[in-house]
Design a protein that fits this description.
Elements: H1 13-32, H2 37-57, E1 63-65, E2 70-72, H3 74-100, H4 107-123, H5 128-146, H6 153-184, H7 189-198, H8 202-218, H9 228-234, H10 237-245, H11 247-262, H12 267-287, H13 295-316, H14 319-344, E3 347-348, E4 351-352, H15 362-365, H16 367-380, H17 387-401, H18 405-431, H19 444-459, H20 465-475
Antiparallel strand pairs: 1-2, 3-4
Length: 482
């Protein structure tokens, strides 16, 4: 009889703790009801913080668990810390917002917690089955969050659209996984990689195309982006902030692990697909946002464009390229957190306003908010010396280093087009006639998040090296032979 050792589960300790915390918070929520959702919300933040502590104090040496289906390494550890940071920010932004909108439900932070658990499992997936289980745990929670405002038609519509299109993308992912399994005889990433290195398979390549289609949906890459503007507009704004920040980091990390662990030998095939996804996303993100009047729809197209820029680094396929993707995603997450912190504060007479025209003359009514949003918009458009500029510069530099000159030039041109709609917001705030003031009384947590985001955008130039070095260390696990 084999002795069971809890050491076998030690790589899973953060995930196990988070799952148990989620079940405990469900019980707390059931007994307290919706009278005071703040308690469950801040307990969820505490659960994420403790999970981060467990992660930091665990081993980041390459270790597998669950019969090789789960892997813990330097890459997983660093990306999970980024995800947990994003989760803490998302819940902190949402706690007061759901009260203001009279949609306070204790399930809101708990659904965020279970979505976060799915993301952590995605990042450590080392098998097609664990990949799918983590992805679906995340997705099912996100579908409910999108429609959590049941009394709002737009929110219900957003949840339904997201669910239907998400089910189609999951089907494509599963079909591709079944083809890969059929032609390689395994669902384990390492075994798939060895099988394809020995003998390529057209069937496995077709399977990978279907899998990439399913994952492109999760990162809002064109042409699988159609859900994004409607869901961003219809979902409660704090949920939209969460969608924009965190799930995309987990999906990009999963994509990196899948491609570099299971399919490195056919990189010539999948880099072409990533190239096309990147170019289309940058173009649609730049041009489709030009006519948007709703700021949440504009940020949806901005998100699509930003995923295109991140995929430029992935298309490079080098250590530098993948490291720059992580740097880009961290900068994008922090920029988005600050931007949505301000969007959540756009309230007039107790009601949320979402039109860009509602920002007219903000510099005279609320100069602090106007200058903070201006800095974030300049950063998103890639104006030096702000952090957003370095994110784009690094991915384009990696692409040029890999010989992707056409994609780099195209990306720079799309960035110039996209700068128009970011700068248009600044023009409206500083040069248009002012409208009625926004409501006062912005929660402290929201002000803190916006302040830290702006500070990061301004100060990143003085010491960008630590983030770059950490990212290079993270991706080195995929390039043992270099």
């Amino acid at each position: 009889m084999t002795d069971f050792s809890f050491a076998l589960l030690s790589p899973l300790a953060p995930e196990i703790f988070l799952a148990v915390a989620g079940l405990f918070l469900l019980v707390v929520g059931v007994f307290r009801g919706d009278k005071d959702t703040s308690l469950v919300g801040w307990m969820t933040v505490l659960a994420f913080a403790i999970t981060g502590y467990l992660l930091l104090n665990g081993s980041w040496e390459e270790t597998t668990a669950l019969n090789g289906m789960f892997i813990m390494d330097q890459f997983a550890g660093i990306v999970k810390l980024v995800i947990l940071t994003g989760l803490i920010i998302s819940v902190a932004l949402g706690i007061d917002h759901i009260k203001q909108e009279n949609t306070a439900r204790f399930e809101y932070p708990i659904l965020t917690l279970f979505a976060g658990l799915g993301m952590l499992l995605m990042v450590s997936a080392n098998d097609l089955l664990s990949l799918y289980m983590g992805l679906e745990l995340q997705s099912l929670a996100l579908y409910v969050l999108a429609s959590i405002n049941r009394d709002n038609v737009k929110s219900s519509e957003a949840g339904l659209k997201y669910f239907v299109l998400g089910a189609i993308s999951s089907g494509m992912l599963l079909f591709g996984a079944s083809l890969v399994y059929g032609y390689t005889g395994s669902t384990n990433f390492a075994t798939i990689g060895e099988a394809l290195a020995q003998q390529g398979s057209m069937g496995a390549i077709i399977g990978l195309v279907f899998m990439l289609s399913g994952l492109a949906f999760k990162v809002s890459a064109v042409p699988f982006h159609m859900w994004t503007p409607d869901v961003y507009e219809g979902a409660p704004t704090s949920v939209t902030a969460f969608f924009a920040m965190v799930p995309k980091i987990a999906a990009i990390a999963l994509l990196i692990r899948l491609l570099f662990e299971a399919f490195p030998s056919i990189a010539g095939q999948w880099t072409q697909i990533i190239w096309i996804l990147s170019a289309l996303s940058m173009a649609v993100g730049a041009f489709a946002a030009l006519q948007q009047a709703n700021i949440k729809r504009l940020l949806a197209y901005s998100s699509i464009g930003n995923m295109g820029f991140a995929l430029v680094g992935l298309a490079a396929g080098s250590v530098e390229g993948i490291a720059c993707v992580i740097v880009y995603m961290v900068i994008y997450m922090i920029m988005t957190a600050g931007t949505f912190g301000i969007v959540l504060s756009m309230r007039r007479n107790g009601h949320a306003v979402e039109n860009i025209s509602d920002l007219s003359g903000l510099s005279r009514n609320n100069p602090v908010m106007a200058y903070a949003l201006a800095i974030l918009m300049f950063s998103m458009s890639g104006i030096p010396p702000l952090a957003g500029f370095f994110g784009k510069f690094l991915v384009f530099k990696a692409a040029v280093g890999a010989g992707l000159y056409g994609l780099s030039v195209f990306g720079v041109l799309c960035s110039v087009v996209a700068a128009y709609y970011y700068i248009r917001i600044i023009k409206i705030m500083f040069f248009d006639e002012p409208v009625a003031k926004f409501d006062a009384g912005v929660p402290f947590a929201r002000n803190l998040i916006v302040g830290l985001s702006v500070a990061f955008m301004l100060l990143f130039i003085f010491n960008p090296s630590p983030l770059l070095d950490i990212s290079r260390d993270a991706v080195s696990v995929f390039f043992h032979n270099e």
